[in-house]
Write a structure and sequence with these properties.
With 320 residues, the chain is an all-alpha fold. The protein contains twelve helices and three strands; from the N terminus they run αβααβαααβαααααα. It comes from Chrysochloris asiatica (Cape golden mole).
């Protein structure tokens, strides 16, 4: 495609991972395998946390929404990338790019928000076990989840409005496998990108508040757990808290690195690997972490895979 056509075309050209046809096919097959496994595992979590009577506590209610976010998050970028690799065509229309930016920023913000809520849930469960059902009652859980989705939608609207209010005057080539906001900024004219920088600064401040809230929750959690005299009690508390802490640490570290590093005209293999760790690995890791460390989840998985019957029982969160 001629450079003039690239500059004037309505959509964008995603460069992906490689120009070599064999590597494109390999990339598509690997992404397809990870995508299908992620869909299957997260959908299983959504099913069992909905129908199993033993998984109606707030922790599993939030986990269900985390899995729903993960399914949506990986579906924003990976299917388009698979299609581009198989078709050997990196073109993405302006409308598709707008949707990618909106849903990517929407779901990324929502994921951080739900992880913050989950850290508070673990704090309430471990530090105030006798008052837990009062602190995390049905209405509060519902309002927390509404706030999660609302915060994500606001983030998506702000990022999308600011990004596509810019004028793109350079060749519309994106050195990535999806419409990455830092790459889009490089295509803007003059100071059009300042609105996006302002939105990013505002959202970064909110993300920092979430991060501090998570850190404070875990300081209280670990100080409480270390005072438990029973080894079994400490083990049980750590088994529910450490997986969540790992997910939070991995997600935040990869996302911070991704957004702080400067966008490159010719990204290295390392840059692309970091983007995979940020966009693809967290949704696929969450089901493994929570199912392998949680006996109730493992038992529910066994029932589901072996065709066991779930008997739904009303509980204080069953209406959620």
């Amino acid at each position: 495609m001629a450079m003039a056509n690239i500059t004037t075309m309505s959509g964008f050209l995603l460069m992906g991972f490689s120009d070599i046809r064999e590597l494109q096919i390999l990339h598509a097959l690997l992404f397809l395998a990870v995508y299908l496994l992620t869909l299957a595992s997260n959908l299983m979590i959504i099913i069992i946390t909905t129908v199993d009577q033993h998984l109606q506590a707030p922790m599993y209610y939030f986990l269900k929404h985390l899995s729903l976010l993960d399914v949506s998050f990986i579906s924003v970028t990976v299917p388009q990338s698979i299609d581009n690799s198989l078709m050997d065509n990196g073109y993405i229309s302006q409308g598709q790019c707008v949707l990618q930016v909106f849903f990517f920023s929407f779901l990324a913000c929502s994921e951080l928000a739900i992880l913050t809520v989950m850290s508070y849930d673990r704090y309430a469960a471990i530090c105030f076990p006798l008052h837990y059902e009062v602190i995390m009652d049905s209405s509060k859980c519902q309002w927390a989840v509404r706030a999660v989705w609302l915060s994500g939608s606001i983030s998506g609207i702000l990022y999308t409005s600011a990004t596509f209010s810019m004028t793109f005057c350079k060749a519309k080539i994106i050195h990535h496998f999806f419409c990455d906001i830092p790459q889009l900024l490089k295509l803007s004219c003059s100071n059009d990108y300042l609105a996006v920088i302002g939105v990013a600064a505002f959202m970064s401040m909110l993300a920092f508040i979430c991060f501090i809230s998570i850190i404070l929750s875990y300081i209280h959690i670990f100080s409480t757990v270390l005072r438990i005299t029973s080894a079994e009690g400490r083990s049980k508390a750590f088994s529910t808290s450490l997986p969540h802490l790992f997910v939070v640490s991995f997600y935040l570290s990869m996302s911070v690195f991704e957004f702080l590093k400067p966008a490159s005209d010719s990204p290295t293999a390392f840059d692309l690997m970091i983007s995979i760790f940020y966009t693809v690995i967290p949704p696929s890791l969450n089901p493994i972490i929570y199912s392998l460390r949680n006996e109730a989840m493992k038992e529910a998985f066994r029932k589901l895979l072996l065709g066991g019957q779930f008997t739904k029982k009303k509980s204080y969160l069953s209406c959620c």
